[in-house]
């Protein structure tokens, strides 16, 4: 490995790390993702973000900065903005879940939607960059000469290097990249009336660009440090987890991601109906098949808000429920059925307007039973999405905040009747970014994984309970948004 600073720009937080050449974590920080509002929604606060990054670098010990050979940047896949040749913004830097460009997709015919999936491997959805590009170009009018669309990670890299380019995994989340030719699709761009020239040249995550003299001077880094756009956070997490063919990555952040790698894309009508998202793997070789569940680790904050608990109280409830669950002291028949669509519906519905539902409440329902039902509902939703994939998992590797939630993990292992290998290391995505920038392979063993095994008796009890609520589950999933 090469010593590296990693920057992981997430939905709710920015994670900054320094790793040495043996992939040991020397320093880290986590700060809320800087945002502010425009007339539509929250957008990235670029000044706040750059100050956060340069402040972290400047706050390192001199010997730590002297070690750094690479900066590797990763981020959420569908964010972005128009960037002028001098790196000024010609549009807001838009968040991934922003639907301000949805109207540009409303005129697409069923045939065009099917064709877009055949070309890009993505279902038509306003989360993806193409609709945001169309909106940004219309909003900018004639004030965007020479502007190109960059993801937030690509833009931060541009501020460090002075260059504008796209990385393969992020490009494959724009809804504008032809997966087969690995070039921007004039045909798909034409469906929304834009010129594919608005998208920049592509560069592999393994190809770095030198920092500018000004950036090196302002941060105290060496002028020979190279910057790498490592790619889409979930895919980079797969690199950090040393994902192999047959492995399933269960990436648990604000959302919950399910990711397989493959040697070819899955572009069949069945995959399109399931709204599975194809992509290009990190480094530009191979493919990924991905689905995102909008409610992942964010459920923790939602439960705190709904139930009036602070983080420590909710953690205590979860730990107690886990102990009671293992000892068989939970009457599962009393559990409310929770559809945890607190942030929208996952595939195959993929509806951002969908909302959660709780059914089966009684006059004597207890707070702990609602918490148990919420995590059980999350696992039911996870299983539904997993069943959409054409691939069976040989091994499930879990990364992210779920590693600290024993109840969530055990329910998942039991309901799936599948063992889990769970990383205890909190920054697997960052370690994957370092590996890409080092042209090296990450080692799953270095993430301190531990196993969570299913129990046949508990699995049978969960299935018996689900058989009794199956019709209700299917009904609430179809409830109008």
Automatic annotation (TrEMBL):
UniProt entry keywords in alphabetical sequence: Carbohydrate metabolism, Kinase, Transferase, Xylose metabolism
Residue ranges that the Swiss-Prot or TrEMBL entry lists as coiled coil: none
Domain (Carbohydrate kinase FGGY C-terminal): residue spans on this chain: 249-440
Superkingdom of origin: Bacteria
InterPro entries assigned to the protein according to its UniProt record, in alphabetical order: ATPase_NBD, Carb_kinase_FGGY, FGGY_C, FGGY_Carb_Kinase, FGGY_N
This protein's record includes keyword Transferase: yes
Keyword Transferase: yes
Single GO MF annotation: kinase activity
Gene Ontology annotations of biological process type: D-xylose metabolic process
Any matching Pfam family: FGGY_C
Entry's family note: Belongs to the FGGY kinase family.
Protein name as annotated: Carbohydrate kinase
Organism the protein comes from: Microbacterium esteraromaticum
Lineage: Bacteria, Bacillati, Actinomycetota, Actinomycetes, Micrococcales
